[in-house]
Amino acid sequence: MRSRWRALGARLRPHRLALVIFALASVWVMSNMWLDPAGRIMSNNPGGDQELFEWMLQHTAYCVTHFENPLGTHLMNAPKGVNLMANTSVIAIGIVMTPFTLLLGAPFAYTLAMTIGLFGTAAGWYYVLVRHLRLSRLAAFVGAALCAFGPATMSHANAHLNFTAMILVPFIIAQILRLREDGRWLRSGICLGLLLTVQMFIGEEIVFLIALFMMVFTLFYAFVQWDDVRSWIGRYAKGLGIAAAVATPLLAFPLWWQFFGPQSYVGIPWAARSFEADVASYVALPTGSIAGTLQPPGFALRHNPTEENAFYGWGLALLVIVFAVWLWRNHRALRAAALASLVFILFSFGPEIKINGWWTGIPGPYRLVEHIPLIDSTLPTRLSLPLLPVVALMVAFGIDKVRAIGADLPKPRRGESAVRHQLRLGWFAAVAVALLPLLPLPVVTSARTPIPAFFTDGAWKPYVSDGGTLVPVPLPGDVNWTGMRWQVAADLGFAIPLGAFIGPNVKDHDKGMWSAPRNPTANLIFWVTQTGQVPEVTDVQRAQARVDLEGWKAEVVVLQETAANTALLSMLTDMLGEPVKVKDVWVWDVRGFVAGE
């Protein structure tokens, strides 16, 4: 055993510096979260995805310890529940993080998962670039750093765990490429099937984008290098068949659950076509970079800070074009990748091309495919995500091309060596000028509202029976997910109504909608929350509240004691009667109210 560890250490020794830098960079990006994982929230995420993923991690840990099905739950949207397989439930990450979730809490586990996700993505790409693509350590380091800490990834690092922890992606790509090798199609096919299965439980959209891009890439490669493709296309097809044979039985039930199981839905609740990439965004600087702080934020070029999928800056864009031209003749695989990238760039523009915020009226090719299943649920701007690895590969291969300048020439005469050296230095300076402005800054965070001691101390337990529903006010929905945080703090010891998820709209043929249809009482609570006005509660509304609370199987209603909740306190008191003050919350035990007592 010791000899194996020594051998592993010997193999890693030349790469330790790269791995250490990747680790430090990952901690740097998440440093503001590490100051206080439970007390900080990522400010640049407009939808509160951090709380959603913390809830998902807590739920997976709950399922592991209670031997329950992680594909669905009745703990949210009580009593109907939620189809978690049809939401971003990151089950695979949740299983790995379960010990940390149980011991140190979901916020800690989430911050750790984001940090490891960045490091693992960088380390994975570094390994693949060195081991499988035979790049130099310098080129592999720069390429891997771009994949893990490049503009698109850093944009999604604002709480999108499923798009940040892309550890398996480089290995999936490597196994796809190895299907071509003689004698490897069976083993690589099995590995590919297993990797794709796990990735499906991290982020299905990534699997879809990989499949789509590799299909287009393979077609272009066959066009530019058919003689080579003809020699291995049979092995390639057999390997893909093996991967499908491995993944299909493993994914059959989860996918059935997703599309046909309880609370399944059709489509997404927003128009994907409205999330296009502006043409000018490809040369704009990302907000989360060093240079991005020196210019006015390009709000006209993005939909929100988490969707800056195509922000590369002029420097990197020009560098990649130059390297692509330089490598075009001798690297046919890169030529095919560049052509495939061009296709994805065109489709990322959406149904109508927009330049620097100006709608040109020119239809984009996305119109041709926007109604195709799966594509109709993919945001056009996210079709630019596969470009980041291609950009990284162009830069990495370009660096090795620069390092090789003059290597194939005869021994230089006096003075020629200095010229070649200066030429290489000039190229490396150009790479530095293109990349240094894109160095990432830590994700921006702000303080979170403290969770009431009522939940952290377990004072809620006498008010909720096993499987009962606690109604947190404000209700979880839209972008206020405080009630879900309370639930996580209580280790999911009770169910809640509504919540943050996509579910079926029973009033519209089960089309996907955000959260769930609201009953009249929920609508009233949301109205008071948003307006701060106190309505006069009628007997009809009290009777309706009794029906709605019974429909939720509610046992207690809880409102945090804050100045902002004064209107809600008055309205709920008028509706449900006088509350009881318990620690730092107002409590209405509604079991008697629901029973008509």
UniProtKB/TrEMBL annotation:
Pfam families: DUF6311. One of its GO terms (molecular function) is transferase activity. The keyword Transferase applies. This is Glycosyl transferase. The keyword Ion transport does not apply. Residues 24-358 form the DUF6311 domain. The chain crosses the membrane at residues 15-35, 84-102, 108-128, 135-153, 159-177, 184-202, 208-224, 236-257, 311-328, 383-402, 423-443. Keywords: Membrane, Transferase, Transmembrane, Transmembrane helix. InterPro entries: DUF6311.
